Amino acid sequence: MDFILISDFLDEIGCCRICTLRFLKPNIDDFLDVENSLKSKGIPINQQCKHETKRPKTNTCVACFNVFNFIDEIIMKVKSSEWLKHYEVKRFVTSYSLPVSLDLAQLQIWLALIEKFPNMFDSERPPDISIKDVMKNILNTKLSDDLHKEFHPDGMMINIFFVIDNEPEMMTKLESVAPELMVERNKQRKKFRTEIVSRNYFEKFFIPKNIKLEKFRQEFSVPPQEPSSALQLEKITFTGPTVFVAGRYNKFSRALSQSPWILNGKRITEGSVQEVIVDAIASYFKVSESSMTFMSSGREDVDVRCLGRGRPFVLEIMNSAKTFLDPSSAVQMEEKVRKSNVVAIRDLQMIPRDDLRHIKSGEEDKKKIYRALCTVDSDVTVEILERLNIEKEFEIQQWTPLRVLHRRTLMQRPRMIYGVKAFAVKDKPNLIVLDIVSQAGTYIKELVHGEFGRTTPSISSLIDMEIDIVALDVMDIDLNFPKSLNRT
Amino acid sequence: MEKFYLNENEYPEGVSSITKFDTGEYPSVVDRYFTRFYHKKTSEDGNENEDHLILYHSNRVCLIGLAQSHIAFKKGIVGITYNIGNCDRSLNQVKGKHKKGGMNLQPLTTLAIITCKDGSEYKVLSCVTGKLIETNDRLKGNLNKLSIEGSGYVAIVLIKPENCEKAKSSLVSEKDYIPSCSF
């Protein structure tokens, strides 16, 4: 490839040095010293200036609209931002929002290069290293030094937005240039009510292979003219990393739902496990409660307590200001939740995103241990108790319970019952306590009374008499996640 | 019996044993989840009670069955069929969360036909506008179940949210219900 010819051509149409280098098949690190990299490709420095007298008005690069001139301003603005103090994180990433006009300029240059150097440029593979990648490379290196933070995908995100004035008008011309490419896009637009073309869509479909040059030339010049409107740095925003906090919760109330129970805009019960926990944790990570997502290994009904080690849960915290949880703060959060008197949490800890799968797997295939308080019409006998001490596992078939039928598919689901133990209660002859070990997903209330024959066998069918469940506790969830911390 | 007593000392401090739960006024399964409604019907000559019982769940699921006062119980029921001539209701199938494919029912749609000892037949009606979700195949061979509230349901019908109020107002509430032909 003749770099000097290409460099000459790009210089002539009004590309800046960085952009010239972008089209000369460079390595990404070449942009840290543009002059030297050009020199090593055989482009003499003075040659870069050769045409300046010929084209005195090329103040704005036709390819990048002088986006690289903003680097110092960006660094200055980031460094002086209040948000830097807000986010107590050691890592960062950068993201860029650039106008589609820059993609259009790339296409104009690309078409010109193919026309001029037909054997050197492909009509599908981009001819250059993208502006975004060059910006990233230059800025990440500089910011890393200036902010004393490490560049890392898990870090806080510095979002840099550029805008250009008359972009939408220009984009309407695309319709006449390549109507066939806009058919699909217009379908998407109706659905998502979005801009004329997104950068993604442009980059994917508006490539020389799909463009008829003559038609394109009717609306846009090839090579491009100097931009008529200027690129502006619109804003810089910050987004904290997403972190995950896991723990186990106990629920001591029979009138507390796991998530807020709101029906037709009206609250049915006051408070919820989720709200109590989120409320104790949000301020530490400096987030609002709405940017936390509560996940758990299953859920219990509003009138069911969750005792024992408790139920594993994970909070997804978006836009977090911290990426660590020190033990003393964790203990404070646990104490604050305990003060609610209805919820307790333990083993609170940060977990990596990968560990989420433990919670999800816990929903389906883990054993759950329950204790049910049941009533029978007559007095409990030794025969009944002996019949209900079942060591051998057995399978039941459970039709979708009527109480959830409106939102779940009607089907018969097999569930394993791993064991049942029955106890009598002193001075209360019509009560039976059942300890039941079952597969996750078993509806225990229906397992006891059989729900009009829709769960078989049921505790009721096993003893061939009516038995009803009046109270239920979760005693344990057989999932060793998150790890026990043995804090007191 | 003593060896079966529950050891209640295992509970940690501040957590009460499950046996301390007050079972005194605890309602039955039907009373916990459902509201009773009735559809009053008499035979053509007006002498026989053919009342229906509708157990209405707040999630719009209805269990349709016969009221205790239905004449068929006095006569003795010897058969039930979901094959009502032009259509076999027991072949009903629903798919997915939204119960696609369930037969559409009007209040006077026949769900099933029961036969009595004397050979007389009675139609079981849907009583509400909705979608057929499930028929009760456990009734065949266990016809005495028909008289048990809940277990004796002939069909499960799901009412559309917008039709719930209309359905309820077209039925007789438990408070206002007087069995037909009880003069």
TrEMBL record, chain A:
Q: Where is the Pus10-like C-terminal domain?
A: 244-478
An example Gene Ontology biological process: tRNA pseudouridine synthesis
Outline the extent of the Pus10 N-terminal eukaryotes domain: 61-236
Q: Does the keyword ATP-binding apply?
A: no
Q: Which domain of life is it from?
A: Eukaryota
Q: Which UniProt keywords are given for this protein, alphabetically ordered?
A: Isomerase, tRNA processing
Family statement drawn from the similarity comment of this UniProt entry: Belongs to the pseudouridine synthase Pus10 family.
| Name of this chain's protein | tRNA pseudouridine(55) synthase
Species this chain originates from = Clunio marinus
Q: What is the lineage of its organism?
A: Eukaryota, Metazoa, Ecdysozoa, Arthropoda, Hexapoda
UniProtKB/TrEMBL annotation, chain B:
> Residue span of the signal peptide, if any?
none
Task: Give the source's domain of life in one word.
Answer: Eukaryota
Q: Which GO terms describe its molecular function?
A: actin filament binding; actin monomer binding
**Cellular component terms per the entry's GO annotation:** dendrite; filopodium tip; lamellipodium; nucleus
Q: Which InterPro entries match?
A: Abitram, Single_hybrid_motif
Gene Ontology process terms (BP)? dendrite morphogenesis; regulation of actin filament polymerization; regulation of filopodium assembly
What is the official name of this protein in its record? Answer: CLUMA_CG008231, isoform A
Q: Which organism is it from?
A: Clunio marinus
